[in-house]
Specification:
Number of domains: 1
Helix content: 40-55%
CATH class: Alpha Beta
Strand content: 15-25%
Shape: globular
Order of helices and strands: HEHEHEEEHEHHHEE
Structural class: alpha/beta
Mean pLDDT: 93
Number of helices: 7
C-alpha cells in the first residue's frame, strides 16, 4: 500500500482545490476495508492532517451524523478559509470530547465510511473507494477492535448499506483500490 499512497499523493497534487485553497482526498469504503491504514501512509507522503470520520460518528448509530458534522464543522469552514474545530467522540467515555482545532491546510485527508458521500464530495479534489471482500473486512475490523465491535457489526453494516444505496460512492469514485492487493483502477 506504500506505492498506492505515493500514487494518491501525485494524483491529489494534480487535482484542483475544491475546499477553498485546500485539496481534500476522501478515502471511503466499508468498515475494515483499510481506510485508516491507507490514510496513515498517505499522511506520511503528504505531511497532511487526517480527519477520521470515526471521531465524528458519535456512537454506533451515527454514520449519517458523522457525515453531517464533517461537512458543517470541518469542510465548510476550511473551504471558507476559516479554522475548523474537528469534533471528537470519546468511544470509551461515550461522550463528546474537546474539538481539535484545524487551520485550513494545503492538503487534507478525510477517511471513513461516508467520506465520499455527495454532500462531502463537493469539497473533495479526489474521492477514493477501497474495495475489500466482506470476509477480509470483518476479520480486520474484529482483529482491530475485538469484542467491542462484534456486537455492532450487523447494525453498522445496515447503516453502510443504506448510505451506499443512496450515495453510490463506489460508482462515483475517481479511483478504486483493491484493499487486499493494492491494485488501482480509475473510476467511471
Amino acid at each position: 500500500m506504500r506505492e498506492v499512497a505515493a500514487v494518491l499523493g501525485k494524483a491529489l497534487r494534480k487535482a484542483p482545490a475544491r475546499a477553498g485553497l485546500t485539496r481534500v482526498v476522501a478515502i471511503d469504503g466499508r468498515s475494515g476495508a483499510g481506510k485508516s491504514a491507507l490514510a496513515a501512509r498517505l499522511r506520511a507522503v503528504l505531511g497532511a492532517p487526517v480527519v477520521a470520520l470515526e471521531d465524528l460518528y458519535g456512537g454506533w448509530d451515527g454514520l449519517e451524523n458523522g457525515i453531517d458534522l464533517l461537512v458543517r464543522e470541518v469542510l465548510e469552514p476550511v473551504a471558507a478559509g476559516r479554522p475548523a474545530r474537528v469534533p471528537r467522540y470519546d468511544w470509551v467515555a461515550g461522550q463528546w470530547a474537546e474539538p481539535v482545532p484545524l487551520d485550513p491546510p494545503t492538503s487534507l485527508i478525510v477517511e471513513g465510511a461516508g467520506a465520499g458521500a455527495r454532500r462531502a464530495a463537493v469539497f473533495a479534489s479526489l474521492v477514493v473507494w477501497l474495495e475489500t471482500p466482506p470476509s477480509v473486512r470483518k476479520k480486520r475490523a474484529l482483529d482491530r477492535d475485538g469484542e467491542t465491535f462484534a456486537p455492532h457489526w450487523d447494525r453498522w453494516a445496515a447503516q453502510e448499506d443504506a448510505m451506499l444505496a443512496r450515495e453510490r460512492t463506489p460508482e462515483r469514485a475517481g479511483l478504486v483500490i483493491d484493499g487486499v492487493t493494492g491494485a488501482i483502477r480509475s473510476g467511471p
